[in-house]
Amino acid sequence: MKRWVKMIRFIGGLCLVTLLGIAYVSYLCHNSLCLAPEHSSLSPRYSISSSSSRSEILSSPASLVKLIGGFPLKVNIESVAFEEAYDMGFDITSRDVIVFLHIQKTGGTTFGRHLVRDLNLENPCNCPRKRKRCDCFRPNTVNEQWLFSRYSTGWKCGLHADWTELTDCVEGALDEYEGTSRKRRYFFITVLRDPIHRYLSEFRHVQRGATWKSARHWCGGQEFTSLPHCYKGSNWTGVELDEFMNCSYNLAHNRQTRMLADLTLAGCYTGYNTTADQLERDRILLQSAKQNLASMAYFGLTEEQSTSQYIFERTFHLDFANRFDQANATLSAQAIAELTPAQIERVRQLNSLDNELLEFARQLLHERFKMLKRRDPHFRWNWLRVIHPHNRLVQSFISAQK
Question: Is 366 designated active site?
């Protein structure tokens, strides 16, 4: 009997040691970014040479590759670019998912509501009263989402998740949400805004008490929770513009470039507020942001609502019931008029990367618009429907073509 007791105790102790060992190794791997060899790759997604041509920037390989700890790691998700989206369309009944990268103060809240409430679909999103989120399920399913956004799935990858976070998280988040693992085609979309207007809008939002301090800042397999704050206390209420601009680690500076770039290419948030190699870091982030923007299925500009709506509808072969209203620029103009020339110049300098990104985006948007217009045999009527959605004559013609 004693022999059996000793054996049971020995086996129990062995199991305990094994469990403790597994837990310890898991902890180490979580913090040191242990990588499985099958995920490794020999070439990074991006060419970082300063001599990259426009054609190189616009090229978009089908798979995504990210750098972690200086080594490339393949992210095994299928991202659909603009031309492919236009040629093949968006199949809401299959495995296609629209992923909305929502950058703060770009008009993304309004656009996000358009996505869940205004698309003409056979099975529209279900938006219960007194609930912020809608159920955007595929036809004949009860939990398969075709839209990954704030107003459908919620902030599953973190508050205002950026490109680095979304590409790393979206597949697993949907697998967990739907309770099954599957491969999907991802149509990344976003909205950009004039950098000066966006920056001042964020400043006023922060001045009223907003912080976004619950954002994860996930990059390279870890969460950067120790990023310094520009303020003491719970928020930055009442901050003046000069103080807002003088904080060197204010994430409002060049926010659009940072949120569209692959941050792993520039060491994530390590040394974010230092001047060491800042020019090299800026160059890498800007080029990465341009490439990621060009490889997205869609992007719009806040200042060009009608053009942006037309491009979305023709790209996805989906129509909106209501037009995108062009926001009144009077408030932004008044805010800028209250600034001194030195302050305006300072805002421009702090967002120099975003300014260059916007010029690239504006040119690309116009190229896409011209291409779609050229291929659209009913452009005149489709354009009229965008700017006059409730005109009966236009609606009658469009209906006759279907």
Answer: no
